[in-house]
């Protein structure tokens, strides 16, 4: 089971790394979570440099893909060569987009007919692409999920774990990372957000 987190130059650390940390709480044989980038290294919006763990080609073959966000997402979607490499398909993959990552899915034509969530800055660009943007942190329809706001990445991770492993595993992962004294509240809030999508998928 391979989950790839698409991460480009100018990436938002919270969007890529919170999801990475939560997804890696699942400890089952064959479970792999990787940072996938178009270059060997990528630099974040705050200067953090990450080494890619997977190529874009590997991400396109992954079981699930998280499209991260960052300061340069509009440059990403304007790069025809780069976008042509993103051969994503919700018929064979779970796709999750965080904040401006939603713009990537929109420009790839993968959100047609679907409502979406994104951050406030990216919202008008997603709307210009013809996508209805919801005033909420998370939504999923079928195999496509989107989230808005950096800390909403926890909902994408929770949804992916529930879909790929189990709801029990999702609860356990959230419980592990939630603040002490607030663990049950965090778990229940996350599960409330993803429950409608899980029911639909079932």
UniProtKB/TrEMBL annotation:
Which stretches are annotated as coiled coil?
A: none
Q: Name one Pfam family in it.
A: DJ-1_PfpI
What is the originating organism of this protein?
Answer: Pseudorhodoferax aquiterrae
Q: Where is the DJ-1/PfpI domain?
A: 2-155
Q: Which UniProt keywords apply?
A: Glutamine amidotransferase
This protein's record includes keyword Membrane: no
Q: What is the name listed in the Swiss-Prot or TrEMBL entry for this protein?
A: Glutamine amidotransferase
The UniProt entry, under InterPro entries, shows: Class_I_gatase-like, DJ-1/PfpI, INH-QAR
């Amino acid at each position: 089971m391979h989950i790839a987190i698409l991460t480009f130059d100018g990436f938002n650390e919270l969007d890529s790394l919170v999801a990475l940390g939560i997804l890696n709480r699942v400890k089952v044989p064959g479970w792999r979570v990787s940072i996938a980038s178009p270059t060997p290294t990528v630099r974040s919006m705050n200067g953090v440099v990450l080494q890619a763990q997977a190529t874009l080609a590997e991400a396109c073959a992954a079981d699930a893909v998280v499209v991260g966000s960052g300061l340069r997402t509009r440059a990403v979607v304007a790069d025809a060569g780069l976008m042509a490499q993103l051969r994503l398909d919700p018929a064979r993959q779970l796709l999750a987009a965080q904040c401006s990552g939603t713009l990537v899915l929109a420009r790839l034509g993968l959100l047609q007919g679907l409502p979406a969530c994104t951050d406030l800055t990216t919202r008008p660009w997603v709307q210009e692409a013809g996508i209805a943007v919801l005033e909420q942190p998370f939504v999923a329809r079928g195999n496509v999920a989107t989230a808005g706001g950096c800390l909403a990445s926890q909902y994408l991770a929770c949804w992916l774990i529930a879909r790929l492993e189990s709801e029990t595993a999702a609860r356990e992962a959230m419980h592990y990372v939630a603040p002490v004294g607030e663990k049950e509240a965090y778990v229940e809030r996350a599960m409330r957000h993803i429950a409608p999508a899980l029911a639909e998928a079932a």
